Amino acid sequence: MNYAKEKLCNALAAEYVLGTLKGKARQRYESLMMENQTIRETTWQWEQHLNSMGEGLNPVVPPPTVWINIQQKLGWLEKPDNVVPLVKEKPQSKRWQVLAGLSTAAVLLLVLLLPFTKPPVEPQISSVAVVTDQTHQPLWLIELSDQHIFTRATSNLLPQTDKDYELWMVPDDGSAPISLGLLPKNGNVQLVRPPQLVLAGVSALAVSLEPLGGSPSGSPTEVLYISPLTKV
User: Which of 117, 171, 217, 224 has the fewest CB atoms within 10 Å distance of its CB?
Assistant: First the structure.
């Protein structure tokens, strides 16, 4: 099977994210994600695309009895002796069959609409930097595209609650550092890449420790880390 074909790759990625790709097919797809960057990127794009669609839906809270029934069927809870099970279970199973059919129909609809609902194109990363501490543990991953700077804090970062971390570009001509914005203490933050930040004219990126809100003077207060930029 040629997984490089765009239509097939999108169809499998959509099924995987929806959860309808099951069993050995799902295991095989997860192995392919480890080996193939295109498949990984397509899966990530569908996750962003479908998650954004789901955010507009109103949550539906099931009755408490649903969770109790699930726990009882799994053996986590014992059925009370004084409760007589209902005989009419077939209508419920039919409803689940209808839901399963709707799920399959949703996948088919996604495949048919692929040419019209392609996920957004992932920005092309041109250079990266990994900010590490004195023990070489990564603290932030920084990726640069033509217009943006994508920053992500790692679990190794132990932030100071009363301080902020600011990112700076260090020009190779020896001029003063230029602030790029505040780094996240957890999760991701997307910054706008300034026109001055050209890889050929930047010797490194620096991280400083600042009061909350950033440097009050426009210059780094206490430089903690310096990391080189690597072109990809």
Answer: 217
Q: What is the dihedral of CA 214, 220, 224, 226, to 10 degrees?
A: 110
| pLDDT tens digits along 153-178 | 998 899 998 999 999 988 877 788 88
* Cβ neighbours of residue 125 closer than 8 Å, sequence gap 6 or more: 143, 144, 145, 150, 232
Question: pTM for the complete prediction?
Answer: 0.49
- To which residue do tokens 């069927």 refer? 73
Determine whether domain 127-231 maps to CATH 2.60.40: yes
Residue-wise pLDDT for 92-126, tens only, equals 555 555 555 556 666 655 655 555 455 555 667 88
Domain boundaries, the chain: 1-119, 127-231
User: Cα(132)–Cα(9) distance, rounded to whole angstroms?
Assistant: 36
Cα(124)–Cα(113) distance, integer angstroms: 25
Which H helix or E strand runs over 5?
none
Three-state secondary-structure class, residue 114:
coil
